[in-house]
Amino acid sequence: MSEGEFAPPPTPNIESYGPNAVYNRERCYQLAQGFFKDAVRRARERHERQKELKLRLESPELLSRRELIWSHSGKLEAKYLRFLRTKEELSNYAIVKTIGKGYFGEVKLVRKRQDGRVYALKRLFKSEMISKEQLPRVRAERDALAESDSEWVVKLFTTFQDNVSLYMLMEFLPGGDLMSVLIKYQIFSEDITRFYTAEIIMAIEAIHNLGYIHRDIKPDNILLDRGGHIKLADFGLSKGFRKDHEKSYYQELLQRPVPPSSRPQNNRHSVNIDEISLTVSNRAQINEWRRSRRLMAYSSVGTPDYIAPELFSTNGYSFEIDWWSLGTIIYECLVGWPPFAAETFYDTYRKIINWPHTLLFPDDIQLSYNAVHLIRSMINAPDARLGRNGAAEIKNHPFFAGVDFSSLRRIRAPFEPPLTSDVDTSAFPVDDLPQEGDGEEEGGPAPGGGGDASGGGLLLGAEDPEMFLPFLGYTFKRFEKSYTA
Amino acid sequence: MSNLFSGINARLRGTANKPVPAKSPISSTPLTDDGQLALPSSLSQASQSSTSLSIASKLPPLPASPSLSQTIGMMGSPEEALNAYPLPRPLPVWLNPAYARHIVKGNFMTLSARPKTVEQGEWVAHQVVEHYRNLWNFVRVVFEKEEDGKTICNATSCPRMSAGMNHSYTWLNNRFEPIELPAFEYITLMQRWISGKIDDTKIFPTEASGVSFSYNSQITTTALLTGPDEWVGKRSGFPKDFFSICQTIFLQMFRVYAHLYWAHFTEPFYHLNLEKQLNSCFSHFVLTATALDLLKPQELEPMQPLIDLWAANGTFPPESKAYEYANLKAGARLLQLGGMA
């Protein structure tokens, strides 16, 4: 070994650089790591597809179709490569209608200009994400949806961003949400409730298996596809429930007996009801309450109705919070309103904390023993809650006797959305939402920041929005097996 | 992977026709000498119409005769092999095996291997865009202004677009005269040219409906067309000059990498602890470029010793073209000097 053959390396000295270099360093570091992580994942997935292709090409039954199989594979791979190469931006999509709205953003029905396909495009505002500390939540949602390949979870095709917003392009589920079905039919029979509950169990189990806790299971987040089967979404538009944030919020509420600030902001839509006046004979009021609740979901307040009590405590929580939420949904399907409904959010919080005393079943609704038993097992203390040992123990509850969970999606759903076109939004409360341009299909506004409209180019001087450190790695593109040729 | 760190004692492969760099300074050669440099005429045409500047270069020296290269390869000692390069002494930090490491383990080849069913032009287009995004990730670090308004790569730090003592690249002005530019300006003009190409959907089509697939004589019945009217990417809608444009893009990106190594490896990448990231992206770049014939062996010259080192230390697997183009003796000598052989 010859000493001194190489120039001696100086002691690494990051301090001699200015703050921008340190910021750029972090960005460069993360992008390089991310590039290889993505490249390796894509290479692995590609390899799997090639292996599968080889098997099919060697299969004697498919001998006559080999050329078709080969060319189809080549074209699918090529389409994906073009998709990866193309810059996604809002102007690639024509906006049809706003179909959902919330505090942090909105969901629009859009049509891709290039191929005419219809999607749901969720938009979140970056500034709100940062100031409301929603970044971990946004990131978790993107990761969960990107990793999931489950038929029970709404499919995420791609994520992209501009200077102002984050976008998630998802499959459009034309059946609307379970909330709309509840509004339409008021209450469900036990058979219908059993069907939806069984499907929701499968969906929650699917995300739990990916290692994610949904944390916000409610009828608004349970969507219905073309056939009326459910898929879980988290449009993430309601106020997040970060633990430390809720805790202080909740404690502040508790210290003030009747805090006027905790009343729904939109009092015009709030209906003066309580658990006594909410009876089966009072259906109109139930729906008025639901309608007002939906409107409140668009405000900053969100709804606490389905939240497990441990989310408000300092003791932490785990997967079983989602089973509590399902318990409250089963109650709502059978009874007509969620178990802790109250005039103000403050009262709802209070009822949830005191659930052993406040979980009551109305006398004038006949429920089976098994239904009540199931609800009481799920709306229960976390260490005794049904589901804490996994979804199987819920599936084995007598309420589900005879249900074949593995074939649920193949049976006919109780309500199939009657659709007139691929952009039929009759299942969505579009009339309650401000619409731009009277529902005409029109272009989205040009993305903010002038310089980045140039495809793959990163022209100097213009900050590329994807280079903004907190949102690095947000962009995602799924290989789509079902592209039409 | 099995082939990591296993190539040290491998023999020099017979096909290695690595040029022996001349020690003389590079002469300025007119653009018309395109037998040597992959500078398609389309490049200057496009530049004329858009920026009134064209890319040209002080050309690297012609490769020495194969016999000389073989003589050194076959008979010279590892020390002689390394000494044949016009390298400064002491050797640059980035040739020290201790600083030529990576953030990725395993065979990089899997990342650039074309899936069998994918048409070649489509795959080349994908690789161009991926490597362009990757490279600019590093350029951004030296190009973005600090609070005092200064960039790390500037006209004072890098008055020429250089890659070591013996390589500097010039632009052609609109009278086809080579002009020297600071690296910052050169790279800025080049970036504008490259993104102009990548964003042009006539050159890099993006319509999903236009895709095709690769021929397979065992499976596809359509006859394989050969002859003057066949070109890479034709069936997928890429233009006739697509491949030569991609070669030029890769050559230009290679020059940027070479500048980053020769001028900025320590300032700032080593100081910012990004040298492994740079190494991984550049070695992936070299593997891809050589595997797809987007860079010719003689074009690798300013970075040849690092390529030799990566062949010798197993970064480049023996089945790769980058390995084939390497002088393993020079690489082994660098490992030896670094106390790793």
From TrEMBL, chain A:
Positions bound to ATP: K122
SUPFAM superfamilies: Protein kinase-like (PK-like)
Domain of life of the organism encoding this protein: Eukaryota
GO BP, sorted A to Z: actomyosin structure organization
Alphabetical UniProt keywords: ATP-binding, Kinase, Nucleotide-binding, Phosphoprotein, Serine/threonine-protein kinase, Transferase
Gene Ontology CC terms, in alphabetical order: cytoplasm; cytoskeleton
EC class name: transferase
GO MF assignments: ATP binding; protein serine/threonine kinase activity
Residues covered by the Protein kinase domain: 93-400
Gly residues bias (residue ranges): 445-459
Residues covered by the AGC-kinase C-terminal domain: 401-485
EC number: 2.7.11.1
Reactions this protein catalyses: L-threonyl-[protein] + ATP = O-phospho-L-threonyl-[protein] + ADP + H(+); L-seryl-[protein] + ATP = O-phospho-L-seryl-[protein] + ADP + H(+)
Segments of skewed composition (Acidic residues): 433-443
Record-stated family: Belongs to the protein kinase superfamily. STE Ser/Thr protein kinase family. COT1 subfamily.
Name by which UniProt lists this protein: non-specific serine/threonine protein kinase
TrEMBL record, chain B:
Superkingdom classification of source: Eukaryota
UniProt KW keywords: Metal-binding, Zinc
SMART domains registered for this protein in UniProt: Mob1_phocein
Binding locations of Zn(2+): C153, C158, H259, H264
Keyword Chloroplast listed: no
SUPFAM superfamilies in the record: Mob1/phocein
InterPro entries on file: MOB_kinase_act_fam, MOB_kinase_act_sf
Protein name: Mob1/phocein
Naturally occurring in which organism (per UniProt): Lasiosphaeria hispida
